[in-house]
Amino acid sequence: METNKVSILAPELWKRPSAIQEVRPGLYQIKLTGVNAFLLDAESDGLVLVDAGVRGSGRRILDAIASIGREKSELRHILVTHCHPDHAGGLAELRKLTSARIYMHRRDAMLVATGRAMRRLLPTPGVLNRMLYQVMIAPKPKTVDPVKADELVGNNDVIPVGGGISVVHTPGHTEGHVVFLAKKKRAAFLGDAAANFFGLRLMPAYEHHQQGVMSLQHLCRFEFDVACFGHGHAIRLDAGKLFRAKWGKGAPKAKGAQKAKRAPKAKHTPAHRGAPPARRTPKPVRRPTSR
After folding, report:
1. Which of 52, 98, 109, 211 has its CA 20 to 30 A from that of 91?
2. Cα–Cα distance between 53 and 36 in angstroms, integer?
């Protein structure tokens, strides 16, 4: 990878030292190589990690946990937003080092279980997005160390930890991408549904661009104050309002959305449906697998 290009385009994305900082009481951002992970203090339910970084991040995450005076045995849950190697690459190592349970959407969990991490991605329209795609995404490894999820989650599931963490299926960046909403902290863990470098924006690439935009529009229906991104700085206040201003009803159309609409109609398969509507009654998380 041409690191000098990356540092010029988005210097905050590729700081190597692992560091942990408080976003709000009981919620921490862990800066890893090229990506952020997040740590949530779920009190009696232990610590919850959102995303696991690239391969080799496991010990760095545990070091970050130790730096705030907590033990690795307190890490009980690992929520994974999607299958890409900068979000799922550290899972196998954490599986060996901890007893934490792993939660993923089945569409991406199937890939990670076989060591695959990538489907075909297409750059988001725009010159900057194409440049970012070439230096951030195209050079990524296509594999991870295989690991099976303990819990398969889907749209509108509620993970019963920390006062309830809701799952919103947000396909587009990947088929099985999900956003986690921590009700008690009023925080959204967005993974790569969107980014916050050079301002709040689309990611530089998606498996299905239009579907990714529709997922962001769907997210505008939910209330959250804090937005935690895999790439870029967390938004600590009024995040939901900023999302609605950007992608809500009446907001200007995202750059490239018209091009996506003129593309040939996709086959009517689960991978190309828009984000499903929220159900009124949450259902408990499924537990179909075991270690």
Report:
1. 211
2. 7
3-state helix, strand, coil in the chain (%, to 5): 30, 25, 45
The domain spanning residue 74 has which CATH number? 3.60.15.10
* 288: in domain: no
- Eight-state DSSP code of residue 185: T
> Residue 19 sits in which domain range?
3-276
Q: Which helix (H) or strand (E) element contains residue 111?
A: helix 106-113
Residue 286: inside a domain: no
Q: Is the dihedral of CA 80, 20, 24, 200 positive or negative?
A: negative
Give the chain's largest Cα–Cα span: 54
Say what the pTM is: 0.82
Overall domain count for the chain: 1
Summarised one tens digit per residue, pLDDT across range 41-58 is 999 999 999 999 999 999
Identify whether 39 is part of a domain. Answer: yes
| CA pair distance 23, 110, nearest whole angstrom | 32
Distance CA 161, CA 122 (A): 36
- Is 169 part of a structural domain of the chain? yes
* Residue 174 · residue 185 · CB < 8 Å: no
* pLDDT tens digits, one per residue of 212-228: 999 999 999 999 999 99
Indicate the DSSP class of residue 33. Answer: T
